[in-house]
Design brief:
Length: 529
């Protein structure tokens, strides 16, 4: 599709809701999120989602948020704990989106006859991303709807072998996941364990950092118009590759722990432990800290055997990267996402300043440990089954609605069972990407290893392909393919999902259902080769 006039117009025509976009560090200190701890094996908590007014970069916004703050509190638990969370939905529809005429100076297009509001924008539920818990009943059940005024009691029993690392919680109601993600609805969840007892790490200053992407209209609110995903037809230089119906001018803000371009302080020589979540619904972040090497110690919640020295780390939406960083030359160093080609040529993501690392004060200390912990091992079982899943692109069913992306030719249908697996077995899933955009695939409940990958773009140094690493979200190269090896743990059975974690893709149907049957249950024929 073509570029709507509003986006083709000079940048100056679009009001900037941030009031400070691209003007350098906003200067706030990175805050530590408030912590909710488990006690005696139980984390008991109420999570209220309601409209609120977080102040980001000096601007008072109007967004739906958890417990009155952006992002939500940090939950800290241990493997084997029970988490009881009462989700209360106190959201209210924010009304009709702003619509104006074509000659309006704000650059809107006229409303279509049919205004497509986000489907069920204020219906929600809860997903604990990466926890290897039951997807059934009152646990991590993706088929639950909590309407406005409703509530739901969730109970998650974290297994005793859940790796110690960074996970997160966020809404996962099909159709409104993107919208609620662009409100910043999410929070980090740390499972404490063996890696925290590595002596060098136990002594370090820890920073849990949540990167949000907020989509804001001129009023500082998240517009409730439908999002049409595209794969690059829109100018990414606005960092906004989506069009809406009706078109509403909007800009993105990318706060860290709710602060716009905050300052993170470290002493020269001091080693800190950073645990970073990319909660942006659509944007990959090729994370760099100017002048600093990263010592990568864990990915998607799963710690490594030893640190890996890397110049940068790419976080797809949903990924968590954990690393150590040693304060270098005194002074200010940019924390940024490097320019990156997430889609086809000429649609590059521009550089994005996220914050500033300020190295200052007396000489600090700290050591990079040689050894960490024993990572989980893939059980030595024969591959019970190999499946092929093909991602294709087709025009949206909605006229002018851009593209949508299908899995094996079909959009999401929650009443269908696409893949049925037997718990206690190992399978290989080969994802073939027939599209020219990277689609980061997330599979619920069980993490996986990358057994094979083809089609990494030439010269793209952002990929980590070590087959011993574990992930729960992994990118498919454009026009390439990835084979994921998974063990379906026997104690987490039921119906769940797998999907692209570019949330506008997920909401438009790039999601499949996955039934994990109890061990010994007879599988039936299902899609796949
Ligand atoms: Cu996708």
């Amino acid at each position: 599709m073509g570029i709507p006039d509003a986006w083709a117009s000079p940048a100056g025509r679009l009001p900037d809701p941030t009031g400070a976009l691209g003007t350098g560090a906003a200067g706030e200190e990175l805050i530590d999120l408030p912590v909710v701890n488990s006690r005696s094996g139980l984390l008991e908590h109420t999570l209220t989602v309601a409209g609120g007014h977080p102040v980001v970069g000096g601007r008072r916004l109007g967004l739906d948020i958890y417990n009155g703050r952006l992002p939500g509190e940090l939950w800290r638990v241990r493997a084997g704990d029970r988490v009881r969370v009462l989700l209360r939905n106190c959201m209210e529809p924010s009304g009709v989106p702003p619509v104006c005429t074509q000659d309006d100076a704000s650059g809107c297009l006229p409303a279509r006859e049919r205004q497509t509001l986000v489907h069920d924008a204020v219906t929600t539920n809860l997903h604990v991303h990466g926890l290897q818990v039951s997807p059934s009943g009152s646990s991590d059940n993706m088929y639950v709807s909590v309407p406005p005024g409703g509530s739901r009691q969730y109970v998650y029993d974290i297994p005793s072998d859940q790796p110690s690392g960074l996970y997160w919680y966020h809404p996962h109601h099909h159709g409104s996941t993107t919208h609620q993600g662009w409100s910043g609805l999410c929070g980090p969840l740390v499972v404490e364990g063996a890696v925290d007892r590595v002596p060098e790490i136990a002594d370090m200053r820890e920073r849990v950092i949540v990167i949000n992407a907020l989509r804001l209209d001129v009023n500082g609110e998240n517009p409730t118009v439908s999002i049409f995903p595209t794969a690059g037809d829109e100018p990414f230089t606005r960092d906004d590759p989506f069009t809406t119906d009706p078109v509403v001018p909007a800009r993105m803000m990318f706060p860290l722990n709710g602060g716009l371009r905050p300052v993170v302080t470290i002493r020269p020589g001091e080693v800190q432990r950073w645990r970073v979540l990319n909660a942006a619904p659509h944007r990959e972040m090729w994370l760099h800290v100017d002048g600093h090497t990263l010592y990568w110690i864990g990915q998607d919640g799963i710690p490594f055997a030893c640190p890996r020295q890397v110049p940068s780390l790419l976080l797809a939406p949903g990924n968590r990267a954990e690393f150590l960083i040693r304060g270098g030359e005194p002074g200010r160093h940019c924390i940024y996402a490097a320019p990156y080609r997430q889609g086809p040529a000429r649609t590059d993501r521009p550089a994005l300043e996220l914050g500033t690392l300020e190295v200052c004060g007396p000489q600090g200390s700290g050591c990079i440990p040689q050894r960490l912990v024993d990572p989980p091992r893939m059980p030595r079982l024969p591959i019970a089954r190999r499946r092929t899943l093909v991602i294709t692109r087709e025009p949206s069913e909605v006229p002018g609605g851009g593209a949508r992306f299908l899995i094996n030719g079909e959009p999401f249908d929650m009443d269908r069972i696409d893949q049925e697996v037997e718990a206690g077995t190992v399978e290989e899933w080969r994802f073939v990407n027939r599209d020219d955009f990277q689609h980061p695939m997330h599979i619920h409940v069980n993490p996986f290893q990358v057994a094979d990958i083809k089609g990494i773009p030439e010269g793209d140094t952002s990929w980590q392909t070590d087959p011993t690493l574990w992930w729960d979200t992994y990118r498919l190269p454009p026009g390439g393919e990835v084979t994921l090896r998974m063990y379906f743990r026997p104690d987490a059975t039921g119906k769940t999902v797998f999907h692209c974690h570019v949330l506008p893709h997920e909401d438009s149907g790039t999601m499949g259902t996955l039934l994990i049957s109890p061990p010994g249950a007879r599988g039936r024929a299902s899609t796949g080769a």
